[in-house]
Amino acid sequence: MTTSWDDVRPYFERDAVAHVATLMPDGAPHSVPVWIGVEGDRLAFFSVAGSRKDENVQADPRVAFSITAPDNPLDMAFVRGEAVERITGDAAFEIIDPISQKYAGKPYFDRSAHTAFLVRPDTSWFHDYSAD
Asked: How far apart are CA 32 and CA 52, in angstroms?
C-alpha cells in the first residue's frame, strides 16, 4: 500500500484544505482541518501555541493527514508521519506566511504566538477512485 512521498507530494502542494489527526492524552483521535505546506521533503502545518493540536503533537509527535483534490473529492491522499521539528516565535512565521500566501494570497493575519511543525512522511498513499 505504501506509495512514494514523491508521488503523493503534489496533493499537498495544492491549496486544498487537509485534515490532520493527532492523539489526545487518552489516546483518542483529534482531527481538524488545516492549511498545509511542503518544506523540502517535509510537510508543514501550524497552530496557535498552547492549543489542543499543539499540546497533542508535543506529547506524541505521530500525526496523519488526509486531503482530497479540490475538483474531485474521490481523488485523495494520506500521509502518516512524525513531527520532527516544532518552530516558535518569529521563525514560525517563516513557515506560516508562505502557507497563508498559498491559501489566502497574503501573509498570515494573526501575529500572536503560533507554532509551526515540520513532519517527516513515513507512510504515503494516494488513489483516484473516480478512475476506477
From this structure: 10
